[in-house]
Design brief:
alpha+beta; NE0471 N-terminal domain-like; 3-stranded antiparallel sheet; binds zinc ion
């Protein structure tokens, strides 16, 4: 028996792989409070059962839409979830109505979905997806470490 050909992950690679596949504890993916600031138009806030709090702007959520169409579009443009679409350079900035949901619905016990004022409504945001997409300072530091 020889170990030839086996590639060992560096400690950093191993840690990153482990973080990506890390199972989240149940309390981390079950919301205690969900607040969708539809009228103010500012975004959504979730306080999780483990006490952690997350918030996202509506624009961010729209750009992180997990539906197949948006996912594919992001893959093609190599955008991360939540990363805005590049604006065509030779176009005058146009006034766009700020993105906000016209309807919000929970989907069973595991997800939430939005009908946006741009007409799109096929994205189902699971609690787990949202928790993994938490971009508070603590989570961001953990992801880039
Ligand atoms: Zn979508
Ligand atoms: Zn966080």
């Amino acid at each position: 028996m020889s170990h030839e050909g086996i590639r060992f992950l560096s400690e950093e690679e191993a840690r990153k792989a482990a973080a990506a596949e890390r199972e989240l504890p149940r309390d981390a993916t079950e919301p205690l409070h969900v607040r969708v600031r539809k009228t103010e138009g500012t975004g959504m806030e979730i306080v999780w059962k483990d006490g952690h709090a997350s918030q996202w702007s509506f624009t961010w959520l729209r750009d992180a839409c997990p539906c197949a169409t948006c996912h594919e579009e992001r893959e093609q443009e190599q955008r991360q979830p939540g990363e805005p679409k590049p604006q065509p350079k030779n176009m005058l900035p146009m006034y766009k109505e700020p993105l906000r949901p016209v309807q919000v619905q929970t989907v069973g016990r595991y997800a939430i979905s939005f009908e946006w004022n741009d007409g799109h409504h096929s994205g189902i945001f699971s609690w787990e997806y949202l928790r993994r997409m938490c971009h508070c300072d603590a989570c961001k530091n953990q992801a880039s470490r």
